[in-house]
Amino acid sequence: MSNWRPMDFSDDFWRMDREVQQFIECIFGSYSWKPSVDVYETDKEIIVLIEIAGVNKEDIQIFIKGNLVTVRGTRREPDINRKEAYHQMEINYGTFERVISLPVVVREEDAKASFQNGILKIVFPKANRVTNISIEEEEGL
Fold first, then answer.
1. What's the rounded Cα separation, in Å, for the pair 129 and 132?
2. Architecture of domain 32-77+91-128
3. pTM for the full model?
4. How far is residue 140's CA from residue 121's CA, in Å, rounded to a whole number?
5. Average pLDDT per consecutive 10 residues, the chain (141 residues; last block may be shorter)
6. Buried (b) or exposed (e) across 64-94, using 16+ Cβ within 10 A?
7. Of 118, 110, 98, which Cα lies nearest the Cα of 45?
8. What are phi and psi of 127, to 5 degrees?
9. Which 8-state DSSP code applies to residue 33?
10. How is the chain split into domains, by residue range?
11. Residues ≥6 apart with Cβ < 8 Å to 89
């Protein structure tokens, strides 16, 4: 026994949804998805993990300015036969951007990034910035 469907608009619906997303992104410059991020701290490092399965290493950019790390990239939609019917679509494609605030000062020049099994790992050594401030005597106080 099969389900009776007098009209099946699912292909058209998903195609239209994807085109609207691309139009909005083009007009407003928004990002189409937001990957999950974990940030944790050890005694010597700050470690950032970003879940970006399906993104090619060449499509990832990492910037750091002060205590803000910006990760941008693109997950490209696979080449599939568009005439097939979609039954479920949950994977987001397109551009993304995450701006992560680091909890402490780091040595950005010594940061290292690796990408394995869909997880981008960025390791920032903590800065050991301890500055002694001498107190001078002022006259008249």
1. 10
2. Sandwich (2.60)
3. 0.69
4. 56
5. 54 64 58 89 96 96 93 89 73 91 93 97 89 78 60
6. beeeebebebbbeeeeeeeeeeeeeeeeebb
7. 110
8. -85, 140
9. B
10. 32-77+91-128
11. 14
